[in-house]
Design goal:
single chain, mainly alpha, 2 domains
């Protein structure tokens, strides 16, 4: 006698079929746990590398900023030095020109001494006339030198040379007046 086969209701069969379909759908949207864990480890490693690179970039950025500040300070310092040197250069003239001016001053001083000696020993109208012309020439030369001085002599040297020229100019004017007075007296005596 065969054993009786239990009867399965259609409702139970439909429920089982629905559960199988539901499990299939869930499996489609899932991955094996081992694969998920491996992906999670890779993600954690990537996040760690990003943080490391971010820290390294921040450190490099700090160094670059410090270097940039240093470079800017150096540039400012160099710019200030360049401006200072430009001002120094603008207040100076070549040594050769200054030496030439000093030589001319010495020469003019020598001519004044010679003129003084000539005045002390001369009595003729012709010699007095020559002395007067020499004094005028010397005055003109000193005026030219004064103009040159304004164009090219620097600071302390300029002030010293200017004082010398002013002194020489005053001496020349005094000598001119003395010569003119002597010429006038000589002419009056001859008349």
């Amino acid at each position: 006698e065969r054993a009786a086969v239990p009867m399965v209701s259609q409702q139970a069969l439909d429920e089982a079929t629905a559960e199988v379909d539901d499990l299939k759908e869930k499996l489609r949207s899932m991955v094996p746990k081992a694969l998920f864990d491996a992906s999670q480890q890779n993600l954690n490693a990537a996040v760690g590398e990003v943080e490391r690179l971010r820290d390294e970039l921040s450190s490099v950025s700090s160094v670059l900023k410090a270097n940039l500040r240093s470079f800017r300070d150096e540039i400012d310092s160099l710019s200030g030095e360049i401006s200072r040197l430009r001002n120094v250069v603008q207040s100076m003239v070549p040594v050769v020109q200054h030496n030439m001016l000093q030589d001319q001053l010495k020469q003019s001083g020598g001519e004044i001494q010679r003129l003084k000696k000539a005045l002390a020993s001369s009595v003729s109208v012709s010699e007095l006339g020559e002395a007067k012309e020499e004094a005028k020439r010397l005055a003109d030369e000193l005026e030219r030198m004064r103009q040159r001085m304004q164009e090219m002599v620097p600071k302390e040297a300029a002030s010293r040379s200017k004082d010398e020229i002013d002194g020489l100019s005053a001496e020349v004017k005094r000598l001119q007046q003395q010569v003119e007075g002597m010429v006038a007296k000589e002419l009056a005596l001859q008349n």
